Amino acid sequence: MEDLVESLTRGNPTEVKVVVATVVIALAVYQLVLIAVGYGRLRPRFLQAGPASRAHRTIGDALLVLIVVVAVMCLAEYGWDDDGGVHAVVGAVLLGVLAVKVLVVRSGGRLGRLLPLLGAAVFTLLAVTWLASAGDFLVDT
Questions:
Q1: Pick from 78, 111, 105: which is nearest to 92 by CA?
Q2: Is residue 133's pLDDT more than 60?
Q3: What is the pLDDT of residue 7?
Q4: What is the C-alpha separation between 88 and 74, in angstroms, rounded?
Q5: Distance between CA atoms of 53 and 12, rounded to whole angstroms?
Q6: Cβ(73)–Cβ(13) under 8 Å?
């Protein structure tokens, strides 16, 4: 897997991972705005709750793919080494919480009331994971 990641990134896995992870964070902030409109917390004149919620769901599906791609790149390139321990553990928890959120969204029902909490947890874990890796990389360069 490491050779595939090296080949796809033309020998720049860290840089590609940082760029993709940064795009994920930017889209996650946009997700917060969209769902705030969807829940009626924000009411801009140019966007109604229904379209905002549908956009949130669609972008969330794309984000899921990007997050999994970044996770595979991290594990293929760095594994569970000691230097990235916190990053790896928080990333694994992020994937677990994200999986639960997807299951709750897909199943509907009474568990839907947990979605704001799960969404906040996903965003927080994304931010911590990004800060533990991409943030350090961007500060050091």
A1: 78
A2: yes
A3: 79
A4: 8
A5: 36
A6: yes
